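Design job #97: recover the sequence.
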């Protein structure tokens, strides 16, 4: 860790910083996750993939050191959701990354603060984020930020489970309801996957 108290700037991604550069920063930032066996899909996206994922009204923010090098980044996209727990326009928090050398320098909190101000300037009903089940640090941060885990899903990328965390702006739900809803989604998903895997196993046995 290095001392970066006064020489970090948080700005919208300048034009001279390419999306491929952002892609490399995100990949490097997830080195510890890969060492722990946690393969994050966003770490493998190309620059074009990153840009496309934000849509027309999304935004990318970067943390620049005194050499104008990107040492951290975060983004937001706006999605129209039609899920049982979220209907309307929601801010999707994504592409969060801080280089390992700058971990512990409060760069993420600075990025998050700027992104939050941007979201508040846009009309939406809440925010949500997808977090890998094994990414305990990110889950802890989301909970501290007031997000509630609401749904368990499984990614098609590597068949890993991930959690949907949500924060409503204009709604309040009783914690008991949130816990029951999450438990229901977890049981439902695992039952569906069990029967899907069982059907595939039967087909495989018949072919062999």
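Job complete. Output follows.
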């Amino acid at each position: 860790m290095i001392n970066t108290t006064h020489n970090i700037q948080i700005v919208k991604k300048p034009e001279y910083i390419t999306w491929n550069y952002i892609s490399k920063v995100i990949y490097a930032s997830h080195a510890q996750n890969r060492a722990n066996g946690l393969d994050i899909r966003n770490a493998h996206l190309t620059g074009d993939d990153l840009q496309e994922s934000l849509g027309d009204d999304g935004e990318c923010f970067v943390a620049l050191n005194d050499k104008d090098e990107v040492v951290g980044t975060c983004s937001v996209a706006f999605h129209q959701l039609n899920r049982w727990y979220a209907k309307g326009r929601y801010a999707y928090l994504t592409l969060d990354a801080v280089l390992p050398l700058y971990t512990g320098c409060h760069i993420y909190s600075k990025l998050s603060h700027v992104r939050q101000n941007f979201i508040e300037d846009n009309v939406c009903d809440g925010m949500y984020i997808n977090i890998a089940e094994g990414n305990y640090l990110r889950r802890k941060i989301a909970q501290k930020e007031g997000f509630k885990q609401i749904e368990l899903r499984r990614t098609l990328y590597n068949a890993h489970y991930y959690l949907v965390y949500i924060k409503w702006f204009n709604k309040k739900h009783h914690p008991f309801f949130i816990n029951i809803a999450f438990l229901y989604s977890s049981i439902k998903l695992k039952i569906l996957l069990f029967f899907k895997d069982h059907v595939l196993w039967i087909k495989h046995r018949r072919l062999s």
